[in-house]
Amino acid sequence: MQLKHHVDSFFSPKLANRYNPHHPLCFVLLHGFLAHSGTFHSFNQVWKKSLTGDHNTNHNHPTNKEIHNVRILTVDARNHGLSPHTASHNQSLMTEDLTHFLSQQDLYPNPNHHTVVAVGHSMGSGTWTKFLLDEKEKVKPPIAAFLSMDMPPITGAELSPTLRGELGVFLDIMKHVKLERVTDYRSGQEAFELAIEQCLPSDQRQDKKALARVKGFLSTNLRFTTDSEKKRVARWKCHVPVLEKALKESQLFLDAAQYSKETCQGGIAVPVLSLLGGDSPIGGQPQYRGRWPHFVKNANDGNLVREVIIPNATHTIYFDQPEATVTAINTFLEDVGVF
Protein backbone atom coordinates (compact mmCIF):
# COMPACT_ATOMS: atom_id res chain seq x y z
CA MET A 1 0.00 0.00 0.00
CA GLN A 2 1.31 3.42 -0.91
CA LEU A 3 0.67 5.30 2.31
CA LYS A 4 1.07 8.71 0.69
CA HIS A 5 -1.63 7.91 -1.87
CA HIS A 6 -4.14 7.28 0.89
CA VAL A 7 -3.12 10.02 3.28
CA ASP A 8 -3.15 12.68 0.58
CA SER A 9 -6.89 12.12 0.29
CA PHE A 10 -7.65 12.00 4.00
CA PHE A 11 -10.69 14.07 4.85
CA SER A 12 -10.54 17.07 7.16
CA PRO A 13 -13.57 19.40 7.11
CA LYS A 14 -13.04 23.04 6.26
CA LEU A 15 -14.09 24.92 9.37
CA ALA A 16 -14.57 28.67 9.51
CA ASN A 17 -11.32 29.19 11.36
CA ARG A 18 -10.60 32.59 12.91
CA TYR A 19 -6.85 33.06 12.69
CA ASN A 20 -4.15 34.88 10.78
CA PRO A 21 -0.86 33.39 9.60
CA HIS A 22 1.13 34.98 12.42
CA HIS A 23 1.54 32.55 15.32
CA PRO A 24 -1.91 30.90 15.14
CA LEU A 25 -3.05 28.45 17.77
CA CYS A 26 -3.80 25.16 16.03
CA PHE A 27 -5.72 22.26 17.59
CA VAL A 28 -5.54 18.88 15.81
CA LEU A 29 -8.37 16.55 16.89
CA LEU A 30 -8.38 12.77 16.35
CA HIS A 31 -11.67 10.93 16.92
CA GLY A 32 -12.34 7.55 18.46
CA PHE A 33 -13.14 4.10 17.08
CA LEU A 34 -16.22 4.03 14.78
CA ALA A 35 -16.56 7.82 15.03
CA HIS A 36 -15.52 10.50 12.51
CA SER A 37 -14.56 14.16 12.37
CA GLY A 38 -18.20 15.27 12.36
CA THR A 39 -18.80 13.86 15.83
CA PHE A 40 -16.74 16.76 17.22
CA HIS A 41 -18.84 19.41 15.46
CA SER A 42 -21.05 20.52 18.37
CA PHE A 43 -18.15 20.38 20.81
CA ASN A 44 -15.96 22.44 18.48
CA GLN A 45 -18.61 25.16 18.28
CA VAL A 46 -18.79 25.40 22.09
CA TRP A 47 -15.01 25.41 22.33
CA LYS A 48 -14.44 28.04 19.63
CA LYS A 49 -17.05 30.33 21.16
CA SER A 50 -15.23 30.10 24.47
CA LEU A 51 -11.98 31.12 22.78
CA THR A 52 -13.10 33.80 20.35
CA GLY A 53 -15.55 35.68 22.55
CA ASP A 54 -18.71 34.66 20.66
CA HIS A 55 -20.69 33.96 23.82
CA ASN A 56 -22.78 35.66 26.45
CA THR A 57 -20.87 34.39 29.47
CA ASN A 58 -17.17 34.03 30.14
CA HIS A 59 -17.04 31.40 32.87
CA ASN A 60 -14.85 29.15 30.72
CA HIS A 61 -13.05 31.89 28.83
CA PRO A 62 -9.25 31.89 29.27
CA THR A 63 -7.91 35.04 30.93
CA ASN A 64 -11.08 36.86 29.77
CA LYS A 65 -9.28 37.72 26.51
CA GLU A 66 -10.48 36.93 23.02
CA ILE A 67 -8.16 34.57 21.12
CA HIS A 68 -8.77 35.13 17.41
CA ASN A 69 -5.82 33.16 16.03
CA VAL A 70 -7.64 29.83 16.40
CA ARG A 71 -7.48 26.97 13.95
CA ILE A 72 -9.20 23.63 14.62
CA LEU A 73 -8.42 20.63 12.42
CA THR A 74 -10.50 17.46 12.84
CA VAL A 75 -9.34 14.52 10.76
CA ASP A 76 -11.12 11.35 9.64
CA ALA A 77 -8.88 8.37 10.40
CA ARG A 78 -8.36 5.71 7.75
CA ASN A 79 -11.39 3.40 7.47
CA HIS A 80 -13.58 6.07 9.08
CA GLY A 81 -15.69 8.99 7.91
CA LEU A 82 -14.84 10.18 4.42
CA SER A 83 -11.22 8.99 4.47
CA PRO A 84 -10.12 6.03 2.33
CA HIS A 85 -10.90 2.45 3.27
CA THR A 86 -7.75 0.34 3.49
CA ALA A 87 -7.00 -3.33 4.03
CA SER A 88 -5.22 -2.75 7.35
CA HIS A 89 -5.96 -0.80 10.50
CA ASN A 90 -3.59 -0.54 13.45
CA GLN A 91 -1.99 2.07 15.65
CA SER A 92 1.32 2.12 13.79
CA LEU A 93 -0.39 2.89 10.49
CA MET A 94 -2.56 5.57 12.09
CA THR A 95 0.54 7.19 13.58
CA GLU A 96 2.21 7.21 10.16
CA ASP A 97 -0.96 8.76 8.72
CA LEU A 98 -0.92 11.43 11.42
CA THR A 99 2.73 12.26 10.78
CA HIS A 100 2.07 12.66 7.07
CA PHE A 101 -1.03 14.78 7.67
CA LEU A 102 0.85 17.12 10.01
CA SER A 103 3.59 17.44 7.39
CA GLN A 104 1.00 18.35 4.76
CA GLN A 105 -0.33 21.07 7.03
CA ASP A 106 3.21 22.43 7.66
CA LEU A 107 2.87 21.46 11.33
CA TYR A 108 5.65 18.82 11.38
CA PRO A 109 8.54 18.44 11.97
CA ASN A 110 8.69 22.21 12.49
CA PRO A 111 5.34 23.86 13.25
CA ASN A 112 6.25 27.06 11.34
CA HIS A 113 5.25 29.57 14.01
CA HIS A 114 2.10 27.62 14.91
CA THR A 115 1.38 26.59 18.49
CA VAL A 116 0.05 23.05 18.04
CA VAL A 117 -2.12 21.32 20.64
CA ALA A 118 -2.85 17.61 20.23
CA VAL A 119 -6.36 16.40 21.09
CA GLY A 120 -7.46 12.78 20.97
CA HIS A 121 -10.50 10.81 22.03
CA SER A 122 -10.22 7.06 22.70
CA MET A 123 -8.48 5.53 19.65
CA GLY A 124 -7.35 9.02 18.65
CA SER A 125 -5.78 9.51 22.06
CA GLY A 126 -3.90 6.24 21.58
CA THR A 127 -2.59 7.45 18.22
CA TRP A 128 -1.34 10.73 19.69
CA THR A 129 0.22 8.83 22.62
CA LYS A 130 2.27 6.66 20.27
CA PHE A 131 3.24 9.69 18.18
CA LEU A 132 4.53 11.52 21.27
CA LEU A 133 6.35 8.48 22.63
CA ASP A 134 8.06 8.04 19.27
CA GLU A 135 9.14 11.71 19.47
CA LYS A 136 10.82 11.22 22.85
CA GLU A 137 14.34 11.60 21.46
CA LYS A 138 13.59 15.20 20.50
CA VAL A 139 14.51 17.90 23.00
CA LYS A 140 11.46 19.93 22.00
CA PRO A 141 8.61 18.06 20.27
CA PRO A 142 6.47 20.04 17.80
CA ILE A 143 3.46 19.77 20.13
CA ALA A 144 2.80 22.30 22.93
CA ALA A 145 0.33 20.18 24.93
CA PHE A 146 -1.72 16.99 24.70
CA LEU A 147 -5.40 16.72 25.68
CA SER A 148 -6.39 13.07 26.13
CA MET A 149 -10.10 12.26 26.30
CA ASP A 150 -11.01 9.11 28.23
CA MET A 151 -8.07 6.98 27.15
CA PRO A 152 -4.89 6.74 29.25
CA PRO A 153 -1.83 4.87 27.90
CA ILE A 154 -2.95 1.24 27.66
CA THR A 155 -2.11 -1.82 25.61
CA GLY A 156 -4.74 -3.64 23.59
CA ALA A 157 -4.96 -6.33 26.26
CA GLU A 158 -5.80 -3.70 28.88
CA LEU A 159 -8.81 -2.29 27.02
CA SER A 160 -11.93 -2.36 29.17
CA PRO A 161 -13.95 -5.53 28.42
CA THR A 162 -17.11 -3.45 28.82
CA LEU A 163 -16.02 -0.92 26.19
CA ARG A 164 -14.74 -3.67 23.91
CA GLY A 165 -18.13 -5.37 24.22
CA GLU A 166 -20.04 -2.15 23.47
CA LEU A 167 -17.97 -1.51 20.36
CA GLY A 168 -18.46 -5.11 19.28
CA VAL A 169 -22.24 -4.71 19.58
CA PHE A 170 -22.15 -1.60 17.36
CA LEU A 171 -20.22 -3.54 14.72
CA ASP A 172 -22.61 -6.48 14.98
CA ILE A 173 -25.64 -4.23 14.47
CA MET A 174 -23.98 -2.58 11.46
CA LYS A 175 -23.38 -5.99 9.89
CA HIS A 176 -27.06 -6.87 10.33
CA VAL A 177 -28.42 -3.68 8.74
CA LYS A 178 -29.64 -4.50 5.23
CA LEU A 179 -28.12 -1.53 3.43
CA GLU A 180 -29.63 -2.57 0.10
CA ARG A 181 -33.02 -1.60 1.53
CA VAL A 182 -31.85 1.84 2.66
CA THR A 183 -32.51 4.70 0.23
CA ASP A 184 -32.80 7.59 2.69
CA TYR A 185 -32.62 8.26 6.42
CA ARG A 186 -36.24 7.25 7.00
CA SER A 187 -35.77 3.80 5.47
CA GLY A 188 -32.50 3.69 7.37
CA GLN A 189 -34.34 4.00 10.67
CA GLU A 190 -36.56 1.07 9.69
CA ALA A 191 -33.52 -1.03 8.81
CA PHE A 192 -31.87 -0.05 12.09
CA GLU A 193 -34.92 -1.20 14.06
CA LEU A 194 -34.77 -4.66 12.47
CA ALA A 195 -31.04 -5.03 13.07
CA ILE A 196 -31.30 -3.84 16.68
CA GLU A 197 -34.09 -6.33 17.31
CA GLN A 198 -31.82 -9.10 16.02
CA CYS A 199 -28.75 -8.06 17.99
CA LEU A 200 -29.94 -6.64 21.30
CA PRO A 201 -31.85 -8.54 24.00
CA SER A 202 -35.30 -7.19 24.84
CA ASP A 203 -34.25 -5.67 28.18
CA GLN A 204 -31.60 -3.51 26.49
CA ARG A 205 -34.10 -2.38 23.87
CA GLN A 206 -36.27 -0.94 26.66
CA ASP A 207 -33.65 1.69 27.51
CA LYS A 208 -34.93 4.53 25.32
CA LYS A 209 -31.95 6.79 25.93
CA ALA A 210 -29.45 4.08 25.01
CA LEU A 211 -31.55 3.08 22.01
CA ALA A 212 -31.64 6.65 20.72
CA ARG A 213 -27.87 6.80 21.07
CA VAL A 214 -27.42 3.63 19.02
CA LYS A 215 -29.70 4.93 16.27
CA GLY A 216 -27.94 8.28 16.28
CA PHE A 217 -24.58 6.54 15.92
CA LEU A 218 -25.88 4.47 13.00
CA SER A 219 -27.38 7.53 11.28
CA THR A 220 -24.17 9.55 11.47
CA ASN A 221 -22.26 6.61 9.98
CA LEU A 222 -24.50 6.36 6.90
CA ARG A 223 -23.14 7.67 3.64
CA PHE A 224 -25.13 7.91 0.42
CA THR A 225 -23.46 7.65 -2.98
CA THR A 226 -24.69 7.13 -6.55
CA ASP A 227 -23.93 3.94 -8.48
CA SER A 228 -23.30 3.54 -12.23
CA GLU A 229 -27.06 3.53 -12.87
CA LYS A 230 -27.47 6.74 -10.88
CA LYS A 231 -29.29 4.96 -8.10
CA ARG A 232 -28.79 6.10 -4.51
CA VAL A 233 -26.70 3.60 -2.58
CA ALA A 234 -26.23 3.49 1.20
CA ARG A 235 -22.82 2.62 2.60
CA TRP A 236 -21.15 2.74 5.98
CA LYS A 237 -18.53 5.41 6.52
CA CYS A 238 -16.70 2.84 8.65
CA HIS A 239 -14.90 -0.05 6.96
CA VAL A 240 -16.70 -2.61 9.11
CA PRO A 241 -14.82 -5.89 8.36
CA VAL A 242 -11.37 -4.33 8.74
CA LEU A 243 -12.32 -2.51 11.95
CA GLU A 244 -13.91 -5.63 13.41
CA LYS A 245 -10.64 -7.49 12.83
CA ALA A 246 -8.62 -4.66 14.38
CA LEU A 247 -10.81 -4.69 17.50
CA LYS A 248 -10.64 -8.48 17.89
CA GLU A 249 -6.86 -8.50 17.48
CA SER A 250 -6.33 -5.53 19.85
CA GLN A 251 -4.54 -3.46 17.20
CA LEU A 252 -5.92 -0.09 18.31
CA PHE A 253 -3.64 0.74 21.22
CA LEU A 254 -0.04 0.40 22.41
CA ASP A 255 1.87 -2.77 21.57
CA ALA A 256 2.86 -4.34 24.90
CA ALA A 257 6.10 -5.77 23.47
CA GLN A 258 7.30 -2.42 22.12
CA TYR A 259 5.89 -0.05 24.74
CA SER A 260 6.54 -1.60 28.13
CA LYS A 261 6.14 0.47 31.27
CA GLU A 262 9.91 0.53 31.68
CA THR A 263 10.78 1.73 28.16
CA CYS A 264 8.03 4.37 28.18
CA GLN A 265 8.86 5.96 31.54
CA GLY A 266 9.10 9.72 31.09
CA GLY A 267 8.80 9.31 27.33
CA ILE A 268 6.33 12.15 26.70
CA ALA A 269 7.91 15.59 26.92
CA VAL A 270 4.79 17.78 26.76
CA PRO A 271 2.12 18.72 29.33
CA VAL A 272 -0.79 16.26 29.40
CA LEU A 273 -4.39 16.81 30.46
CA SER A 274 -6.26 13.55 30.99
CA LEU A 275 -10.04 14.01 30.84
CA LEU A 276 -11.96 10.99 32.11
CA GLY A 277 -15.70 10.35 32.08
CA GLY A 278 -17.00 9.63 35.57
CA ASP A 279 -19.58 7.18 34.18
CA SER A 280 -17.32 5.72 31.49
CA PRO A 281 -16.09 2.10 31.36
CA ILE A 282 -12.64 3.70 31.18
CA GLY A 283 -12.69 6.84 33.32
CA GLY A 284 -15.17 5.39 35.79
CA GLN A 285 -12.82 2.53 36.74
CA PRO A 286 -9.94 3.06 39.21
CA GLN A 287 -7.46 0.91 37.26
CA TYR A 288 -7.44 3.46 34.43
CA ARG A 289 -6.78 6.48 36.63
CA GLY A 290 -3.41 7.92 37.60
CA ARG A 291 -1.52 6.37 34.69
CA TRP A 292 -0.13 9.44 32.96
CA PRO A 293 2.55 10.55 35.48
CA HIS A 294 4.65 7.47 34.68
CA PHE A 295 4.72 8.41 30.99
CA VAL A 296 5.37 12.16 31.22
CA LYS A 297 8.82 13.71 31.65
CA ASN A 298 9.20 15.72 34.88
CA ALA A 299 5.71 14.63 35.92
CA ASN A 300 6.38 15.77 39.50
CA ASP A 301 5.81 19.30 38.26
CA GLY A 302 2.11 19.66 39.08
CA ASN A 303 1.40 21.66 35.94
CA LEU A 304 2.70 19.02 33.51
CA VAL A 305 0.18 16.26 34.24
CA ARG A 306 -3.40 16.83 35.28
CA GLU A 307 -6.27 14.36 35.56
CA VAL A 308 -9.84 15.66 35.59
CA ILE A 309 -12.87 13.45 36.14
CA ILE A 310 -15.93 14.83 34.34
CA PRO A 311 -19.08 13.90 36.35
CA ASN A 312 -22.10 12.46 34.53
CA ALA A 313 -20.05 11.77 31.40
CA THR A 314 -19.70 8.44 29.63
CA HIS A 315 -16.86 7.53 27.25
CA THR A 316 -17.88 10.35 24.87
CA ILE A 317 -17.21 13.11 27.39
CA TYR A 318 -17.07 15.86 24.75
CA PHE A 319 -20.64 14.98 23.73
CA ASP A 320 -22.10 14.37 27.20
CA GLN A 321 -20.54 17.35 29.01
CA PRO A 322 -19.11 19.82 26.46
CA GLU A 323 -19.14 22.86 28.78
CA ALA A 324 -17.33 21.06 31.61
CA THR A 325 -14.85 19.61 29.13
CA VAL A 326 -14.13 23.04 27.63
CA THR A 327 -13.68 24.61 31.07
CA ALA A 328 -11.14 21.94 32.09
CA ILE A 329 -9.25 22.32 28.81
CA ASN A 330 -9.07 26.10 28.85
CA THR A 331 -7.98 26.21 32.49
CA PHE A 332 -5.20 23.70 31.82
CA LEU A 333 -3.94 25.42 28.67
CA GLU A 334 -3.80 28.72 30.51
CA ASP A 335 -1.91 27.14 33.42
CA VAL A 336 0.75 25.58 31.14
CA GLY A 337 1.23 28.80 29.18
CA VAL A 338 -0.44 27.91 25.88
CA PHE A 339 -2.83 30.86 26.27
TrEMBL record:
Superkingdom as given in the UniProt entry: Eukaryota
Domain AB hydrolase-1: 27-327
The entry's keywords: Aminopeptidase, Hydrolase, Protease
Family annotation (SUPFAM superfamilies): alpha/beta-Hydrolases
GO MF annotations in UniProt: aminopeptidase activity
Family: Belongs to the AB hydrolase superfamily.
Protein name: Alpha/beta hydrolase family/Serine aminopeptidase, S33, putative
Organism lineage: Eukaryota, Discoba, Euglenozoa, Kinetoplastea, Metakinetoplastina
